[in-house]
């Protein structure tokens, strides 16, 4: 197949998700064109087909979509009017504007999921600081749009503090979502893929370990999760994807409560950090599956390749041991030859995800597998 015969997918966003999707596209013999703001964005560094521009620029997205079978995303921050305009011109946008808006706006997501009975924390749309609720379990405040890795989320310690936060957000022109604080046992994620024809598949439910609002570790599958609860989480992910008409992969982030319930936290309609383990721990990675879905190909087998896979994020640090990243990778490969390293080509900054590692093993050895994966991530982060 010549390059001119390759089905081409356009992806809005030049970050690490587009970079790893590009790797999957190469293996499938498919083209991936990325819309990146800068030539040194992670995906732009490696893709031969880059449109420089912002996700908010209709003309840039038009250029990217020209000749493409579908247009998809590595982030949700694309204005609705831009997406609607592209769809009106015949561009196959996956997921569609009508689906993506529920991942772009947490208030809309909460209201829509409530319509078909998806389990979730109590929530309120707050338009007046004086009307801000204060449930007995406490409150979480969120901006309706934007925010990730703990940004755009507040945990007020009193009703007065909650009112102050709401007043500041409303003054800044933000829509405010208030949620009942959940006494979570742990956080989970159910990843689902869906094609335009409605074929769906799910990966095993995973546990996500959070630190300061950022995912640091993923354990796949989630250990000691009741089989019926795991099946419920997978069915919930399928139901949401089907109800909203999602095309591509979607992460349904969940709370598991102490009394054995699961509650929807947030949605991400794109490849997601909680699915990075699939690159080395699943028959079909989330990135390959996303391409299959948006191209309307039959979906791949999501079966795990090992009893357990641990993913640990490599996070930029201000403290390093003076060694270059290349030197750290060299040492790690000698010390932990089974660890799979994925670097994003990003300039290290404190708190910034710059890569991840995966390590597979036996469930009986989970503690040792996790320790080795986390140690590898720390070493690549700060050389310690």
From TrEMBL:
Q: What is its EC number?
A: 6.3.4.18
Pathway noted in the entry: Purine metabolism; IMP biosynthesis via de novo pathway; 5-amino-1-(5-phospho-D-ribosyl)imidazole-4-carboxylate from 5-amino-1-(5-phospho-D-ribosyl)imidazole (N5-CAIR route): step 1/2
Describe the location of the ATP-grasp domain by residue ranges. 110-295
Record's GO cellular component terms: cytosol
Q: Which UniProt keywords apply?
A: ATP-binding, Ligase, Lyase, Nucleotide-binding, Purine biosynthesis
For biological process, the GO terms are: 'de novo' IMP biosynthetic process
GO MF annotations in UniProt: 5-(carboxyamino)imidazole ribonucleotide synthase activity; ATP binding; metal ion binding; phosphoribosylaminoimidazole carboxylase activity
Q: Which residues bind ATP?
A: 106, 142, 179-182, 187, 265-266
Give one Pfam family, short name only: RS_preATP-grasp-like
**PROSITE patterns noted in UniProt:** ATP_GRASP
Reactions mediated catalytically: 5-amino-1-(5-phospho-beta-D-ribosyl)imidazole + hydrogencarbonate + ATP = 5-carboxyamino-1-(5-phospho-D-ribosyl)imidazole + ADP + phosphate + 2 H(+)
Q: Which InterPro entries does the record associate with it? A: ATP-grasp (IPR011761), ATP-grasp_carboxylate-amine (IPR003135), ATP_grasp_subdomain_1 (IPR013815), PreATP-grasp_dom_sf (IPR016185), PurK (IPR005875), PurK_C (IPR040686), PurT/PurK_preATP-grasp (IPR054350), Rudment_hybrid_motif (IPR011054)
Asked if the record carries the keyword Cytoplasm, the reply is no
Keyword ATP-binding in record: yes
Task of the protein: Catalyzes the ATP-dependent conversion of 5-aminoimidazole ribonucleotide (AIR) and HCO(3)- to N5-carboxyaminoimidazole ribonucleotide (N5-CAIR).
Q: Which PANTHER family match?
A: PHOSPHORIBOSYLAMINOIMIDAZOLE CARBOXYLASE, PURINE BIOSYNTHESIS PROTEIN 6/7, PUR6/7
Family recorded in the similarity comment: Belongs to the PurK/PurT family.
Subunit (UniProt)? Homodimer.
Name assigned to this protein: N5-carboxyaminoimidazole ribonucleotide synthase
- Tell me what organism the protein belongs to: Segniliparus rotundus (strain ATCC BAA-972 / CDC 1076 / CIP 108378 / DSM 44985 / JCM 13578)
> Lineage of the native species?
Bacteria, Bacillati, Actinomycetota, Actinomycetes, Mycobacteriales
In the UniProt record, the gene name given for this protein reads purK
């Amino acid at each position: 197949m010549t390059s001119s015969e390759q089905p081409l997918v356009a992806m809005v966003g030049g970050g690490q998700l587009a970079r790893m999707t590009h790797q999957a596209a190469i293996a499938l013999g498919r083209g991936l064109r990325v819309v990146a703001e800068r030539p040194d964005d992670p995906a732009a560094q490696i893709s031969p087909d880059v449109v420089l521009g912002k996700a908010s620029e209709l003309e840039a997205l038009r250029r990217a979509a020209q000749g493409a079978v579908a247009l998809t995303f590595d982030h949700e921050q694309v204005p609705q009017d831009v997406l609607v305009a592209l769809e009106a011109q015949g561009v196959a946008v996956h997921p569609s504007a009508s689906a993506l808006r529920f991942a772009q706006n947490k208030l809309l997501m909460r209201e829509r999921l409530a319509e078909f009975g998806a389990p979730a924390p109590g929530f309120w749309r707050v338009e007046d600081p004086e009307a801000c609720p204060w449930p007995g379990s406490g409150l979480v405040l969120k901006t309706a749009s934007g925010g990730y890795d703990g940004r755009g989320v507040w945990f007020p310690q009193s009703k007065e503090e909650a009112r102050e936060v709401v007043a500041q957000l409303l003054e800044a022109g933000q829509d405010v979502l208030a949620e009942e604080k959940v006494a979570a046992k742990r956080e989970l994620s159910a990843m689902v893929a869906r094609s335009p024809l409605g074929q769906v598949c799910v990966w095993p439910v995973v546990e996500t370990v959070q630190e300061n609002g950022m995912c640091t570790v993923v354990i796949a599958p989630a250990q000691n999760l009741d089989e019926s609860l795991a099946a419920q989480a997978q069915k919930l992910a399928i139901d949401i994807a089907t109800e909203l008409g999602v095309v591509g992969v979607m992460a349904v982030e969940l709370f598991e409560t102490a009394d054995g319930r699961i509650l929807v936290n947030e949605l991400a309609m794109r490849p997601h950090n909680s699915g990075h383990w699939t690159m080395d721990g699943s028959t079909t990675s989330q990135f390959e599956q996303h391409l299959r879905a948006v191209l309307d190909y039959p979906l791949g087998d999501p079966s795990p390749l090992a009893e357990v896979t641990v993913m640990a994020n490599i996070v930029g640090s201000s403290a390093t041991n003076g060694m270059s990243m290349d030197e750290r990778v060299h040492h790690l490969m000698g010390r932990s030859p089974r660890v799979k390293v994925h670097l994003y080509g990003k300039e290290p900054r404190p708190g910034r995800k710059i890569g991840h590692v995966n390590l597979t093993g036996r469930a009986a050895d989970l503690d040792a597998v996790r320790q080795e994966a986390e140690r590898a991530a720390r070493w690549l982060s700060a050389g310690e």
